[in-house]
Amino acid sequence: MTDQSTAQEVVPDDPTGTRPPRRRAPRGTTSHARSFSPGFIAKLILIGTVDALGVYGILSAWAVSQWGILAFLVLALVVANWAYFSRRMLPAKYLVPGLLFLVVYQLFAMGYTGYVAFTNYGDGHNSTKADAITQIAAQNERRVEGSPSLPLAVVQSGDELGFAVVTEDGDTQVGTAEQPFEDVDATVESGRITEVPGWEVLGFAQVAADQEAITSLRVPFSDDPSDGSVRTQDGSTGYVFRSALEYDAAADTFTDTDTGTVYTPGEGGNFVSPDGERLTPGWRVGVGFDNFTAMVTDSRMAGPFAQIFVWTFAFAFLSVITTFALGLFLAITFNDPRVRGRKVYRSLLILPYAFPGFLSALVWRGMLNERFGLINEVLLGGASIPWLSDPWLAKAAIIGVNLWLGFPYMFLICTGALQSIPHDMTEAARIDGAGRWRIFRSLTLPLLMVSVAPLLISSFAFNFNNFSLIYMLTGGGPNFVGTPYVVGHTDILISMVYSVAFESGTKQYGVASALSIVIFLIVGVISYLGFRRTRTLEEI
Amino acid sequence: MRRSIPALATTAVLALALAACSSSDSPSDATSDSPAADAAEGTLTMWVDDTRIDSMRPVVEAFSEESGVEVELVQKATGDIGPDFVTQVPTGEGPDIIVSAHDGLGEWVNNGVVAPIELGDKADAFADSAVQAMAYDGQTYGVPISIENIALVRNNALLADTPATTFDELVEQAKGAGTDFSVLIQQGEESDPYHLYPLQTSFGAPVFEQSADGSYTDTLALGGEAGHAYAAYLAKLGADRTLDLSVDGDKAKQAFLDGQAPYIVTGPWNTSAFQEAGMDISVLPVPSAGGQPAQPFVGVQGVFISAKSENPVLANEFVVNYLTTEEAQDALYEAGGRLPALTASADKVDDAVLQGFNEAGATGAPMPAIPAMSSVWSFWGATEAQIVGGQAADPAGAWDAMVQNIQDAIDG
Amino acid sequence: MARSTELHTAVRGRRWWSEIGWRHVVGVVMIAICLLPLLYVLSASLNPGGTLTGSNQLFRTISLENYTELGPRGYMNWAVNSLVVSSATAVGTVLMGAAAAYAFSRFRFRGRRSGLTTLLLVQMFPQMLAFVALFLLLLSLSEVFPAIGLNTQLGLICVYLGGALGVNTFLMYGFFNTVPREIDEAAKIDGASHAQIFWTIILRLVAPILAVVGLLSFISSYGEFIIAKVVLQRPERFTLALGLYNWASDERNARWGIFAAGAVLAAIPVVALFLFLQKYIVGGLTAGSVKG
């Protein structure tokens, strides 16, 4: 689906066009399909375009063997046509465009995370087994010590490729994959082989056209395989290489050519020797629930976990409350039409929202600097308050900076939502003698909550996972002293995941995914419960 | 994932895995000249960051003209090149070539995303530490293009010469200048092990043991008596405010720019700003604090080829045969102003500041590229911060706890 | 509206302070707090060689050098890209979100409640791996529909539209619920179809929230760079946020001055858009029609 199609797909389900027939139709009998109004024709054209794009997509997905996309497109086309041509699927007509995007871009990412959580994807297990085999072989192909670098030309005879080289003694030799080097009478001009009898010397352009074959060609140096073979990477210089590890495709094992150690593919996605030595890189394999159990069994995570868990809730909760309170207060303050210049006030109030968040966090970090920050040095007259290195002050600083960053969002939303509260109602209450606070508590706030409550929950969830703020402002610090993972007093669950999965040695996407799914379950359940409570508010 | 945002870059620098190792380039006598007699067709995709893309452009154009191979430069954020290389190469959609600091090499090798190359006797033309940095586990993976390390920078307007032979004497002399700060070493909430490393090595406590050929093993060497002595020294510098966690990178740079300190330990990335501001500066090695040579980490910018490049010959032609030429390295220097890794080009650099860094780096240690290094950074910085900040009452004890935690992390 | 002018003239003296004056005080204080950190950004943007927070001595150098450097670095191009991408995203989000909110608000169908709940929960999924997933997805899409694959702005817009339903739908849903059903009923009796009611009646009544959602969606896509950097790779296709991020990503070599200048200019469209939309957000259009 392209965006034009979906953005406009909403239009065509106005089946009767902008000039409606002035007749009252009994419900359910208005034929969407049979009234050939301009609107219906527009709808036909749009759906037709979508269908055409979809069919095009199906055909090209077929051509490039993208079966997943093909299946999805077929399904999406069926759903779309059914939704817009069926008479009954009213809600679907409004939901389909947005849902399509949601499914493609959001659910896919979720599903992928879920899949990764059950694999060992991460550093050292980055790709497929085939890639790993190629790479192990390539990394362990070592140049024979003391061997010369040989001026080389790629030669061809019929379909057969070979190398022509100038040896250390100045002789010229030719060999192929099957035929070790033997002397020939080639022409050498200024160190380069230009002609070989019986062979065509390939120029750079020809070499470039067949790179794969040339870089994988190995010409035995002599009849004795232990002498190694000649290969080239640039088509002009050859070196004698010997494999320290050789792959046996039939047995699916690597063998060390010096010690004879055999490495067999292990369960963990590595080639492993009998005494447990692993070759890198490995490949991606499924590991079942290992990533999930790992966090339970990792005693190193037990220590600060409880503290971080509590702080995560406190942080998310306080962030929502403070930003919402300030945003709402400001929205109400400037909702009074008698305030002159409120347009300017409002516009300047969203400035914190208009600057890149990481830039603001950097500036705040500088301003909170213990000795030289603006807050201590200028505003507090040279005080030395450890804003970022005292555990409690750092927490306060995080909440404060998040308030600065986040209130414009709440301010905007509240300003918008306030418009749904009829002015007459508050006016009537005022005439009845209700005070400002009373009006706010009994009238404005409950009405506002109808539209805003779900947003507060979602804001809670956002802050629950607000990794970037923590990371940019304090990096989780001040750190706990001596803990086996580098985590600190201001770390929240998601930044702890980051620290554990990415910063303690290797990057472990599998573990990170598993941890983040667990966090999702926690915050999801809490939000779900909170959401059910707001239901009572919402159903008027 | 929300990472590598510049503020994160502080951490990102720490989070990168670092490199060094042996390279067994045996002598050979063959000549290696360019085979590009006739033009080839093909396009190479090359990832390069914002600060290097402009200096790479003319070099790439010259190569295209000579060989007919187009090189498309794709701009990526500095901190993203390594991680994205690891995630994208397996899909087959990654770049052919990347330009990056060498410290991610271990991770790339372990993930099988970088292809080995053979420098042959070209290796001899480069600075030893630069070639060592391109090697991992006995195999070479990249062509070095420039070298960077930190050194001591002096504001000549405040102090004209440096008689000090130890770091303590240096601090004493600097205090004589009567400025707010003596010797600036940038810190931050997580301290800065990178900028403190010359002091640490001067106590004989390098992070990993190095084997005879210069390559790192994953045996930790920063503990023991030497480590304790360094930890105690850090605590002392923290107590007398020579080191101050409040002095972050921004503050240190600005203070030096404002003439508030006669010395700063920093790298070439800041000296250009000093010179643009019209300051007269000299660059010197950092004096030893613990009696042994103060070695900074040497970072090497290298060019690496993807293991799944569809154009391996073209990529090798460009990287191994073209970027190793004096002509290419000269051009990179002229456009980018970074010290070339090729000795012949570096010798031609007529810039006292860069030469100063070059001399200070001559004794330096390559940044370790072994993956174990990524376990080290975060513990290291956190512990140094606690020692400098005074939270760790027993510096030696805190240091031991750190060594233990790093060892646990390495053992997995 | 007439009432407010009436009141306006009536309020004086102490009453003015208690009813209106304090609002100005709040406004001024809040604006000072909003602007304070941004002064560092502005100061850095005017100082060619300085640091971002290295000194509290602001505005000691005033030079437009950083601003003039923006042009040659492709800034204008990025600005245009950003405006295109964010406008398209905002319009798409408003249309699809409003349609969905209408369906949830006005129709009663099976799965309505669970659908609403699911929409809310989906948004809470931690997106730690989203960038890997999206890269793979767009890579596959590139082969079938190159127009929405990797390195296309259309592809980026589509990814952003994936989030069109969600929090915004809820905001609109809540607002739709406050529009009395009698209005629909009356229109239905006049023979209007559900689509006509939606397009010609409801959407006008909920204009304030459409403007809010449009603005929120514009701002979030305008400042987004994490997905953008996965999708867009060629500098000429970058959005502003992505371009700026690239300048600032190298901690050591970052030129904060140019970055800050870029950020200052980038904030202008957002503020301008809000200025423009304010009349829809708080305008009197709906005031008369939405009555309980």
UniProtKB/TrEMBL annotation, chain A:
Family, as annotated: Belongs to the binding-protein-dependent transport system permease family. MalFG subfamily.
Gene3D superfamilies on file: D-maltodextrin-binding protein, MBP, MalF N-terminal region-like, MetI-like
GO biological process, alphabetically ordered: maltodextrin transmembrane transport
Domain of life per record: Bacteria
Membrane association type: Multi-pass membrane protein
Entry keyword annotation includes Ribosomal protein: no
Function: Part of the ABC transporter complex MalEFGK involved in maltose/maltodextrin import. Probably responsible for the translocation of the substrate across the membrane.
Region annotation (Disordered) ranges: 1-33
An annotated Gene Ontology molecular function: ABC-type maltose transporter activity
TM ranges: 40-59, 65-85, 94-118, 308-332, 344-364, 396-418, 439-462, 509-531
Localization: Cell membrane
Pfam families with a match to the protein in the record: BPD_transp_1, TM_PBP2_N
Protein name: Maltose/maltodextrin transport system permease protein
Location (main, coarse): membrane
GO cellular component, one term: maltose transport complex
Family annotation (PROSITE patterns): ABC_TM1
CDD domains: TM_PBP2
Keywords, alphabetical: Cell membrane, Membrane, Sugar transport, Transmembrane, Transmembrane helix, Transport
UniProtKB/TrEMBL annotation, chain B:
Record keywords: Signal, Sugar transport, Transport
GO molecular function: carbohydrate transmembrane transporter activity; maltose binding
InterPro entries: Maltose/Cyclodextrin-bd, SBP
Signal peptide location: 1-19
Domain of life: Bacteria
Swiss-Prot/TrEMBL GO biological process terms: maltodextrin transmembrane transport; maltose transport
Cellular component annotations (GO), alphabetically ordered: ATP-binding cassette (ABC) transporter complex, substrate-binding subunit-containing
One protein family per Pfam: SBP_bac_8
Family, similarity comment: Belongs to the bacterial solute-binding protein 1 family.
Protein name: Sugar ABC transporter substrate-binding protein
Lineage of the species this protein comes from: Bacteria, Bacillati, Actinomycetota, Actinomycetes, Micrococcales
Automatic annotation (TrEMBL), chain C:
GO molecular function: ABC-type maltose transporter activity
SUPFAM superfamilies (UniProt xref): MetI-like (SSF161098)
InterPro entries in the cross-refs: BP-dep_ABC_trans_perm (IPR050901), MetI-like (IPR000515), MetI-like_sf (IPR035906)
Compartments where located: Cell membrane
Gene Ontology CC entries for this record: plasma membrane
Coiled coil: none
The keyword Zinc is annotated on this UniProt entry: no
Gene Ontology process terms (BP): maltodextrin transmembrane transport
Keywords, alphabetical: Cell membrane, Membrane, Sugar transport, Transmembrane, Transmembrane helix, Transport
Domain (ABC transmembrane type-1) ranges: 79-277
First-listed, main subcellular location of the protein, grouped into a coarse class: membrane
Chain segments annotated as transmembrane: 21-42, 78-104, 116-142, 154-176, 197-219, 256-277
Membrane topology: Multi-pass membrane protein
Family: Belongs to the binding-protein-dependent transport system permease family. MalFG subfamily.
PANTHER family: MALTOSE TRANSPORT SYSTEM PERMEASE-RELATED, MALTOSE_MALTODEXTRIN TRANSPORT SYSTEM PERMEASE PROTEIN MALG
Protein name: Sugar ABC transporter permease
